[in-house]
Specification:
single chain, alpha/beta, 5-stranded mixed sheet, two-stranded antiparallel sheet, globular
Length: 162
């Protein structure tokens, strides 16, 4: 069975439980993807494989492949969350065929995967302005910038000997 996971309006997310068939794809995933395409004209997709990959019957794998091929140029972000190496290999094979970015995550990183698919990942750089120039702190950990534009940890010389 495939269950829908609640997510933002710009993504579709699903979780597998028990045996997976083509019927699950046709009644759960395809209608959600079709609605998503009508809203934003691209696919941001999360698939949490929460069971053994052997629970997918052949028709389910075929339907999974067909969904990918039918929407060839519409894939934007796809995250597969699983502990199964077979599923990761299957997903990785689509990177070369289908547009968009594909990432695989372990189950403990589910929230990170969902944030990425929804476009809510944390920014990497701090871009506060210092004077008239933008300041980019490549090691930004969210610390407060000091008046000189650098975080307090940037000014520490760990190799200093008095």
């Amino acid at each position: 069975m495939i269950l829908k996971i609640e997510t933002s309006d710009n993504a579709a997310a699903f979780r597998t439980v028990g045996e997976i068939t083509a019927y699950d794809y046709k009644t759960v995933i395809i209608p959600s993807i079709t609605a998503l395409m009508k809203r934003i004209n691209e696919i941001n997709f999360l698939f949490l494989i929460d069971n053994e990959v052997e629970n997918f019957n052949t028709s389910a794998w075929l339907e999974d492949t067909l969904i990918g091929l039918r929407n060839l140029g519409k894939w934007n972000r796809t995250a597969v969350v699983t502990e199964c190496e077979k599923a990761i290999s299957f997903t990785n094979s689509f990177r070369y065929i289908v547009s968009g970015e594909f990432r695989c995550y372990k189950k403990e990183s589910f929230q990170e995967a969902l944030n990425w698919v929804e476009g809510k990942e944390l920014p990497v750089f701090n871009t506060q302005e210092v004077g008239n120039e933008p300041f980019i702190d490549p090691d930004d950990l969210g610390e407060e910038n000091q008046s000189n534009g650098y975080s307090d940890s940037d000014d520490i010389d760990y190799n200093y000997k008095p």
